[in-house]
Amino acid sequence: MKHIETSSVDRREFMRAMAAGATAAMAAGCPRSLLAAANDSVEQPIARADACILLWMGGGMAGPDTFDPKKYQPFEKGLPVERVMSTFPAIDTVVDTIKFTAGLEELAKVMDRGTLIRSHVQPDLGRILHGRHQYHWHTGYIPPQTVAAPHLGAWMARVLGSRNEVMPAFFDIGQRLEGHGEKEELKTFHSAGFFGGEFGPFMLPYPQDAAAAVRPPKGMSSQRFETRYRQYRELVMRGSLGEHGSSFQQESMIRGMENAYRLLKSPERAAFDLSLEPKENYEHYNVSDFGLGCLLARRLVEGGTRFVEVSTGYIPFEGWDTHEEGHTRAVKMKKSVDRPIARLIVDLEERGMLDRTLVIVASEFSRDMMIEGVPGSNAHDQSRAKSDTLQELRHYGLHRHFTGGSPILMFGGGIKKGLLYGATAEERPCIAIENPVSVTDLHATILTAMGISPKTGFEIEKRPFYATEDGKGMPVDALFI
Amino acid sequence: MTTLEGIEMSNGQPFAELVQKAAEQLLHDHPDWSDRQMHQYLCQATLMRSPTADELAKLQPLASAGQSAAEIEDVLWCIVMLPEFQIIQ
């Protein structure tokens, strides 16, 4: 190995050179904080949580078959389908006032640690498409928009940053963006939008492969890897970028490379390696890819990230997207999420992290046996098992998208324990009849818990853009301790 | 650029294999070139300009004991990772 001269450029100097381009960055169209620009008086709330984990039930999880049981109707050949409300019997939870449905026994044991909202409502977007609703849920804005709206996680990455400078602020686990029919729709909101790529998600579609993502290149010694990067930095510093600064895009690229190098060299990358988890605890989560995603999320939060989304993985007509065989499919889905989510809550609690970690379980909408959208909607009937009576098991399940009321679970991060909030009607249509919570207000609640005012705004293309739609989101104060 | 993109550029197998293949090809095609000739060629082929004296001085120590494919690979990686190569102004 040849002698390599020691770099004369230390990290501080390198970063100072990067900052030299800040003026150019502004001129190049970098979004500016409205607070800074207008000296606005928006007061940022005191944070109740330091990190946020969103557990995403991609595809539309049916409330009446999960956390909002209605009258149970077992499968019976020849039965009119309109008689079907819930296809699972109700079970008790540790909270007297809250019932779940069978198959969620582990989560039932931890309900005293969090709040169940039964009255989350979505707008009727007409012809219901998962991509549109998921975009709305994740950004707070109904598509299409004239600017690229940032993901909820990107707001946290942009406004709060990571808790550990080595760790990316925003991870997304379990969602594939290639190889299926709605990949382009999903890409539109798995993004930092106008904030720029630096604040976008670190995508880890397969949690068990996460460790490989942060290893130095195959066959390269760590010394050679370090030398190569040091030489790269020298070349950057000796070029025009180091002397004069440069455009926003150039600066962003260098920061991306610097962040990558720091992570690849850091001890924190052990957080990505699930094989380092004690066997007994690993097995609690090892019931599904989603389960391992929950474990990875806990490790990444321990490592200092700010926001992690773990998805069951939306793929059209798979997972929670039950257009036929709804009951059978829901049995499998509940098995894949029940134990891991319950374990995550207890795991965080045992480590003293739950109070400062906000955990949310959500989906883009609910499902119903009969109604597509909400009553009066012009949405197309998308059941793939249309029948007036139950003739075979594939007819048995909640096969139509329903936006009138759906459940949300929230744990930790200053959220009340053992609370039931809101209600849906017992008879069809099972719309929210008490304390409806819109996506806008739910986001305001989540952001407030994280210490971000729902009125926080940035100027992009000379127009204001807010963390909640038009800055009007109102946190649901009744949910906070 | 996201951290993930930065990581993919730094350790991603497809890109690493491309750079490695290019380095081996260059060494095969020009076994007699000096370090200086190789660095000049790499800069001209990627940045459309000759390296500055400063850049050459920085690259020189890396390859002072003769060329190897791994060394060319590392120099090539450094040059194509420069914003000057990556971003069209």
Spell out the key features of this protein.
heterodimer; A: 481 residues; 18 strands; B: 89 residues; mainly alpha; 6 helices; globular
Task: Describe, in plain words, how this protein is organized in 3D.
The complex is a heterodimer of chains A (about 475) and B (about 90). The longest helix of chain A is centred in the C-terminal third of the chain and has 25 residues, at about 325-350. In chain A, helix 5 (about 130-140) runs parallel beside helix 7. Chain A has 15 helices and 18 strands. With about 475 residues, chain A is of the alpha/beta class. The radius of gyration of chain A is 24 Å and the shape is globular. In chain A, strands 2, 5, 6, 7, 8, 9, 12, 13 and 16 form a nine-stranded mixed beta sheet that branches. Chain A has a three-stranded antiparallel beta sheet with strand order 1-17-18. Chain B is globular. The longest helix of chain B has 17 residues, at about 15-30. Chain B has about 90 residues and is mainly α. In chain B, helix 2 packs across helix 5 and helix 3 (about 35-45) packs parallel to helix 5. The model of chain B has no long low-confidence stretch (mean pLDDT about 85). Helix content of chain B is about 70%, strand content about 0%.
**Distance N to C terminus of chain A:** 61 Å
The level of helicity of chain B is: 55-70%
- Counting copies of identical and different chains, the oligomeric state is heterodimer
Secondary-structure element string of chain B: HHHHHH
How does the major sheet of chain B shape up? none
Total number of helical segments of chain A? 15
Shape of chain B: globular
Low-confidence parts of chain A: 1-12, 14-28
